[in-house]
Structures are given as structure tokens and as C-alpha cells.
Amino acid sequence: MTSPAPIDDLPDYASLGLPTERDGWEQFDHLQAYRRLGPIYQLGFRGERHVVIAGMEANEAAWRNPDQWSYHDALVPFREIMGPTHVTQLDREPHRRKRRNLRNGFAMSAVVRHLPVIDEVLREAYARHLDQPVRLHDFFMTALTQANSRTVLHCGLDAEALAHFIVFEEEFISGTILGEARHAHYARPAFVAHREFVFGFLRELVSRRLAGQRCPDSFQDMIDDRRERGEPLELEELVPEAYLLLMAGTGNTAKMLNCGLQHLLANPGWLGPLEEELAGYRIERLMGGMGAFPRLRATLMEMERMFPAAPVLSRVVEEPFEFHGHRLPRGTRVLHLQPLPHILDEVYADQYRFDPSRWMDREYPKKAHGTFGGSTHICLGMNLVRLHTPVAVANLLRDHRVSLGGEPEILVNLNYGVP
Q1: Residues 6+ apart with CB under 8 A from 224
Q2: Can you name the residues that pair with 313 across neighbouring β-strands?
Q3: Within 10 A of 380 (CB to CB), how many other CB atoms are there?
Q4: Distance between CA 363 and CA 139 in Å, rounded?
Q5: What is this structure's pTM?
Q6: Which of 59, 93, 200, 402 has the highest local Cβ count within 10 Å?
């Protein structure tokens, strides 16, 4: 038996001569580093040493024991903007309590009842834009936010309010990857104005609910469940939770649909049979699951694989543990590359090709699919994403035809936080 090696002995990314910066952004070739250094190595990033863990082994180790991590110290921008009780800022028992309190807003059993209204909102959105040029990302983010405003959080957004929420979400998330530069980004007068509008709007909404106003939505289910269990109902804790219901993940879902549809439209051999399958799409059939739509399910799984929202997740070690012959002490800053298996050819053959057929009659290990993370910190909005995307794609391909107005405009930033 050998003792675990200290992290000082880890191989160093810098020794490989690979890229670290391009056009002012940090750009790292983690695939080559993984191939040459293995599933754990060290990296200098923004003046600090980080340990990188990657691959299926890393996913298994990272998701096995969520209490070994501190998210509080790793995701500071969320605390700065959303407050100290935001779900991403909590660890261990406070985090488990928060997830219990949010369950009635995000569990599949809680949100699947909204499918008919989601279906109606998407159909209406497509009908309003017939024969009009649209930017797909903007279209989907708007339509999905409108769907949320009529299902999980009834709030009657007009065009002005909708614009405030969408711009705030996009600007907030883009700022989370800027390091110390985020302070100037968040201090811009335009961003401050959007933030004040968004939180003022939600504070009034939550205040009315606490005063007795009732609506048939998921937010009401969350409030009722807490009251039944004797949990406190605090205005400042509920406001960011209402924001989560309305906006969290809409931008990432819109990006995934935008990029995925452009790949799909360029693949007529798959698109034709998929359209035939979706000729029989009815929301009532989808209510029972994806079993009746195997090609649609395969398409969406391939979109998730190729366009994950967060290619790198920052974490800090709370409880020391061993990984791949090295001991990671408390306080170690870790970059977990949870979607790296998506581009490993030993897992997904021809990994850079958009090929939904790979999902037909085949399942891959859960640790090979890092789009939503894993364990108790798995993406809170995963179930909403997996309701929004089949409805969006099915209604579009069943009832409409899409043509690209020129070369696709897809910019890929392989940065920390968001792609």
C-alpha cells in the first residue's frame, strides 16, 4: 500500500506548452491535458493554483459525496447578486433543506402538469412569428420566459418587464465568469437599472403572496408546502426563489436549442424521419413520457451532449479526500470538467459529429453525461429544461419549416462558467 501523493506533486498544465489565453479570454486545451497528464493535474488560473479533475472517474468521485465540497466559496457572484440564501451558496444540511423547500417548484412530478400550457405558449409564439426573420436564441429565451410566467410563476409580464428580466439574466450570467472584473460589469448603470426593476417586481409579487394572494402555480405549491411543514417564509429568501422559477436556465436552454436546431437542419437524413415521427405529436402523448417519441428523445440527448451549459464547475474542497493517488486537502480550489466525457472518443464514437442516432436503443453511463451535474447538487432546473425542449422542437418541426438566413452565427467560448 502506498500513501497518497501531495497535490504539489501533480503534473502541471504549464509544462505542456498548450494555450492559456486568446483574444483576452482564458482558453485551455483540457482535452489534450487530460490525454497527456491524466484525470488530475494543476493549473494556474487568475493568480491562484487550481487542481483540475476530469473524465468519468472524476465525475464518479465528485458526485459520490457532495459534502466533500464547499460551493459557498466557489460561486461568489451568485451570493453577491442573489443573496446568501441562494441555493448555489449553501452546503450540506442547509443545502438539503433548501432543496426540500424548492422541491414543489422543480420536481418532475410538480412541473409535468404544466405541459399543456407550455405547449400552448410555444404554439402561440411560433404563430406570431410566421414568415418573419428571428434570432433563434432571442426567440426561445422570450418564449420560454413567457411559458414560465404562465405556469411555474404567474406574474403577467408585459413587453417592458420581459425585456428587463431577459437582459438582466443574460448580463448576470455573463458576469459570473469575469473574475474581479465582474464588479465593474455589475456596477454599470444599465445593469443596475435592470436589477432594481427585476427585484422590485419580484418583491412586490412575493409580498402579495405572503399577504394572502393565491395563484395556481408552482410558487404557490412551494409556499403551501412550507407552511404545512412549519418552515419560515421570509421575503428576502423567497424573492430569489421566485427568480429561479421564472428565469434560471432559460438562456442556456435557448442557446442549446439555437445551436442544436442549426445542426439538425443540416442533417436531412435524420431530420426527415424525425419530422415523420412528430406528425403524431400531441401534448397528451408527451404527458406519458418520451417513449412514443424515440427520435425526439435521441435528438434532445445529443443536443445536451454537444452543448452543455457549464463546461467547468468551480469548487472548493471542504472534507479532504483522495483521487487518483493524490490527496486533496481542505481549501483546495478545484475545477471540475464534468462534461469532458462528452468529447472522449472512447465513450462517444465520432464525438464531434452531431449524431442523434447514437442514442437509439442505447444508454450511456450516467457519469458520462455531465450536462446537469450529479448527486444532490444536480441542476435544479433540469426537469424544466426537459419539458421545454421537447415541446419547443416538436411544435416547430410538426407545424413549420425553418430556413437559415445566411451563415449560422454561433460563437463558442470555451471559458469557465458558460460556453
Answers
A1: 104
A2: 336
A3: 21
A4: 32
A5: 0.93
A6: 59
Distance CA 183, CA 187 (A): 6
Q: Residue 380: left if φ>0, alpha if ψ -120 to 50, beta else—which one?
A: alpha
CA–CA distance, 168 with 160 (Å, rounded to integer): 12
Instruction: Specify the DSSP class assigned to residue 107.
Output: S
Please report where in the chains the cell 493535474 appears, as a residue: 41
pLDDT tens digits in sequence order for the chain, 419 residues long = 566 777 889 999 999 988 776 545 567 889 999 999 999 999 988 888 999 999 999 999 999 999 999 988 878 899 999 999 999 889 999 999 999 999 999 999 889 999 999 999 999 999 999 999 999 999 999 999 999 999 999 998 999 999 999 999 999 998 988 889 999 999 999 999 999 999 999 999 999 999 999 999 999 999 999 999 999 999 999 999 999 999 988 999 999 999 999 999 999 999 999 999 999 999 999 998 999 999 999 999 999 999 988 888 889 999 999 999 999 999 999 999 999 999 999 999 999 999 999 999 888 999 999 999 888 888 899 999 999 999 999 999 999 998 888 776 666 554 444 34
